[in-house]
Amino acid sequence: MAAKCMSKTSAKILLTLGVFLLVISVAVLLIFPTIYKNQLKNDIALSDGSLVTKIWKDIPLPLYEKLYFFNITNGDEFLKGAKLNVTEVGPYTFKGHWVKNYTKWNDNGTVSYTELRTYEFVPGMSVGSQEDEIFSLNGPMVIASDILKGYPIGIRALAAFEFAMMGETVITKRSIRELAYEGYPDKIIKWAPKFKKDIPYKDGLFSWLYGKNNTNDGLFTVFTGVDDPTQTNIIDKYNGEEKLSFWKGDTCNMLNGTSIETGPPIPEEPETYTFFQTIFCRSLTFNFTGDSEIKGVKTKHFEPDSNIFANGSDNPANSCFDLKGERPSGVLDVSPCQFDAPVFISFPHFHMADPVYENDINGLSPNGGDHGSYVEVEPITGLSVNIKVRFQINLNVTHTDGVFQLGKVIEGLYPILWVGLEISLDDYWANYLTGQLNNPKIISYSVLGVTLFLSLVMIIVALIVLRSHARNDDDDPLLDVKEDHRQNLKKRHVSTDYGSNTVSQQRERSSVHIEQGITNHGLDVDDTRYESFDENDDDAPVLSVNSREA
């Protein structure tokens, strides 16, 4: 049917177009990954309007801080030298909102910002109200006692007397509201700035997360990744400095990694993921443990190993973090960035720490499921789409000559609370991210697929038509006539004169009629010769013809 409706010329045109479309489709198919990669480069860099910047600048993902406090249940016995008993109380959940402000795009491919972090209590996700009260170690008194070690014995004794006069005790009863963000008035804290200028408590209030709500952690400068995607959100400076100043060596003071929310694209087989958070006063490196998935979004999974807070003996790379002699592994002394307060960071319940810490306290039960940390990163965009970073704040209690209140207490590292920072995709953002990543590829490959299919159809139809025309030419009976006359031309050469003009005229008329007939049947007359012949000759005159196509 196609051959009857389409001429040979049209079929050739169709074939040419089909081949052209096929070549274009294959070429685009080969170069499309490069085109898509270049487009993604613009989307994952920190620049006005990019996909990653929208999420990085004002994190829309559900973000929570869950607080778990350790309630002391044997305070009187503990002050007399008994082992400390605690029970965990929590979670007390706060919904977080992180917004980057004062954004300045610098000429050297960096951007500077501060990040305002606010937290609002969520009763429905908490075990109780912020008015719940627990017994906890008296932070100001224990910290003050430790700082007094640098003063003469007389001043220490006088300070201990003042503690008693002010009603300060080693264990205090406070509400969750007071211990978490809002704080409570404390006389030691009120007077402390007069003796130690770098103490951050300027208004006489104390809390364990003081200055961590409705505040920022300082000025960050990070690379945008516009020129080099592998540098996206890599920290360049913190508070104008390229290095920290808390630790013993340059290696430990280096500002490595991202600010955790986003980073460079992740290779197929990554090794580590490094980030910096001010609460740790250092960069932390998590190891790649495998591929994972959250709500249909494929991710790379990173976790810390047991050496992350190891001492210098167990992990030589951590030697410059050992400031006051080696301690059993599993805790980080953050006193250099906490105005020399004897504060240590660990994982909850001393997870992955030396057993000595857990054994000194009754009521701890570390396990990876409840107390482990991890970061899951979408590898194409570098977005951290599932974060659980859990850390514990501990207070190091030691004896100070002249401060009698701590005289019988067993020295040790005691837990105050642990914090679980959680950021994860919800259904909306999972669908949005999946669409942004996959829709361009789906649409582009679909269009290419249709174009490729059409080009193949055009080629096949054109070939069928051309083949049909060729077959029809082979079956034409006039071609047999052509062949017969060629054979006769070879065999017969007759030369006869006709004296009669009448006969000659008749022959000419016959020749014209034959030529017209042959022409009408698709043949070209190549050469027509009528030679003289005898009237009695039974042989027909020789006719030479060439066939031609219609």
UniProtKB/TrEMBL annotation:
Transmembrane segments: 442-466
Subcellular location(s) per record: Cell membrane; Membrane, Caveola
InterPro entries: CD36_fam (IPR002159)
Membrane topology, from the record: Multi-pass membrane protein
UniProt entry keywords in alphabetical sequence: Cell membrane, Disulfide bond, Glycoprotein, Membrane, Receptor, Transmembrane, Transmembrane helix
Principal location: membrane
A GO cellular-component term linked to this record: cytoplasm
A GO molecular-function descriptor: scavenger receptor activity
Protein family membership: Belongs to the CD36 family.
PANTHER family, alphabetized: SCAVENGER RECEPTOR CLASS B MEMBER 1, SCAVENGER RECEPTOR CLASS B TYPE-1 SR-B1
Name of this protein: Scavenger receptor class B member 1
Species this chain originates from: Oedothorax gibbosus
